[in-house]
Amino acid sequence: VTASILALVLANVLMLGLGVGLLPLLRLAATPRELVQRLPIAYAAGLAGTGIASAELALVGIPVGIVALPLLMLVVLALGLRRLGRGGAAEPEDTRRRPWALPALALLAVAAVFLANAARVLAVKPLLENDGWALWGLRARALYEFGHPTAPVFTDAVYPALQYPLFLPELEAIDAHFMRGFDGTLIHLQLLGLAVAFVGAAWTLLARRAPSLLAAATLLAIVTAPSFFGQLGTNSADVPLAMLIGLGVTALATWLADGGAGLLPVATLFLSAGAMTKNEGELFAGAAYVVALLVARRAQRRPLLVATGVSLALVLPWHLWLLAHGITATTFALSHLLHPHYLTSHWYRVTSAQDQLLDQIWRHASWTLLPFLAVAGAAAAVLLRRYRVAAFGIAWILVSFAGLLCVYWASPLPLHPNLFNSADRTIDTLVIGGALLVPVLLGRPGAGYEEGSTPGT
Amino acid sequence: LGSRERAPGTRSRLIAWAAVAAATVLALVSVLQSSRVTWHRLGTDYRRFSALVPGQRESAASEAAGFPASLFDLLSLQLRPHDRIYFQIPHTPYGTLDLHDTLAALGRYYLLPAVEVTRLDRATVVVSYEADPGRLGRRFRSQIELGNSLRVSRLAEP
């Protein structure tokens, strides 16, 4: 077991190395000093980059394992450090007093204690929940065994959720390659890795704009919410999806408000990773891009269109692969949305789904006060006349929620079993993403530096 | 970072500070309300799962579905990599589930890299549970009985 854990840690160190190389390539670090300051985001960037690359390579039959991952890491790291060597304008060093730094760091330390406690559990928890083994575990194990998506596991309707993309199973398959076998228990440590990466990346992103104490308190509130570790440990993709999309919309909202080099590429990276984690991820990422295009300044629209194009280009190969193998979505029938008779006769599905999703969002036993925090933050941002970023946050939540309702509306699956099995999880991204936006909504340029944090502290 | 928002006045700054303070307090109240629950649950889960030995962890999904831990180990020993399995299991109620669907789902996970096929003519091996392989009308190369109701019958090499 110890050797397997070390092998899994080694795989994640390589992903971290890949992330370090990505920071200069994404223009998030122009100097060695900035690279060190923004290292906490490198792990999440590395996980996202590795997951995206391995999911794409799997489609052309190239498995990422003990040979390809170090190679990939070395190439990206070399390219990144080469770019870093060319220098570039560094952001001015902040020398202001930071009275809230210590309390904020204390809250982050508490979050670290919770993560450590969760590590103890995830290292011994078997695959137990149905989706954890029958869907995600199965796909990860198959990718490990076969090296690429293959028939019938990824093509025959007897296997579940064929349309789900490969991001998370690929990360777990890489771990299995390093462990020299698929371990349904230790694989949970990869999910912990995602949570650690999420906290580091969110802290670094929020530090650009948000008051540090609010940023740290929000992160701690997310990590300690009962559903966070409760769902993460089931090996379902919903909390990983929520974390990736949450990081993406945080970076995008900050970029819309302040500009800032590297934020849009980072947002593109995380939104693309989210779109490649679950099909709902495409909805959440698409909603973020559409809303951002509507609220962006004129000068921001062209780079936004490029970012949207990059995400589409990354998602497209999976859809072409599905098309080539004759796989159509089993949980969503787009054609239903084009038939007025279907829509009117199935309106009850919208109202039922709306009630159920809202009930899950506001459920205190799941997310405590996080939804209240998101609503209060959005209202305060309007009050403070931070219209652009408030419009982005509010519209992203509403469009995403409406999109979820459309999915339930158009689904060919019986409504109530579908809601019973999924409603508590499909709202994760709205809750986590909504809460994570609050420090951005209430922050202002330089507030993070002024009130107690530098990126990476 | 470009400072594109207008520098706020004293009153605006006070309101902004109050909003940040209120949101911070709300987040901290959320932490206070949830941290004990989450910590307790993590502790309970650790005690529950750390008591399992590695074999029990591997077969946890199978046992949770009501099948003995040894079932899929026994089956695996009879399979070759890339075998194509036809599950001959009746569609009878199994609690709130279906016996065929439950066992086939477990088989799809535990028996990899052997895979399930739904057409007998594509199968290399038949796993029969509470069913008679003789009823399939095929000539088998070999057949092994792994208990009263479980049989593995080989049709071909993968």
Largest sheet of chain B: 5 strands, mixed
How many helices of chain B? 5
Largest interface: A-B, 70 and 52 residues
- Give the overall shape of chain A: globular
Helix content of chain A: over 70%
Share in β-strands of chain A: under 5%
Q: Main sheet of chain A, how many strands, which sense, barrel?
A: none
Order of helices and strands of chain B: HHHHEEEHEEEE
* Average pLDDT level of chain A: 91
Estimate the global geometry of chain B from the Cα principal axes. elongated
User: Which strand order do you get reading across the main beta sheet of chain B?
Assistant: 4-1-5-7-6
In words, what does this structure look like?
The complex is a heterodimer of chains A (457) and B (158). Helices cover 72% and strands 0% of the residues of chain A. Chain A contains 22 helices and no strands. Chain A has helices at residues 2-25, 32-37, 42-59, 68-85, 101-122, 130-146, 167-179, 188-206, 212-224, 226-232, 238-258, 263-275, 279-295, 298-324, 340-345, 347-361, 364-367, 370-383, 387-410, 415-426, 428-442, 447-450. In chain A, α3 packs across α14 and α11 (238-258) packs parallel to α21 (428-442). The longest helix of chain A has 27 residues, at 298-324. Chain A is globular and about 60 Å long. The model of chain A is unreliable at 448-457 (pLDDT under 50). Chain B is α/β, with parallel strands linked by helices and 158 residues long. Helices cover 46% and strands 16% of the residues of chain B. Chain B contains five helices and seven strands, in the order ααααβββαββββ. Chain B has helices spanning 10-50, 54-58, 60-64, 70-78, 99-110, and strands spanning 84-88, 93-94, 97-98, 115-116, 125-129, 142-145, 150-154. Chain B is elongated, with a radius of gyration of 28 Å. The model of chain B has no long low-confidence stretch (mean pLDDT 90). Chains A and B meet through α5, α6, α9, α10 and α18 of A and α1, α2, α3, α5 and β4 of B.
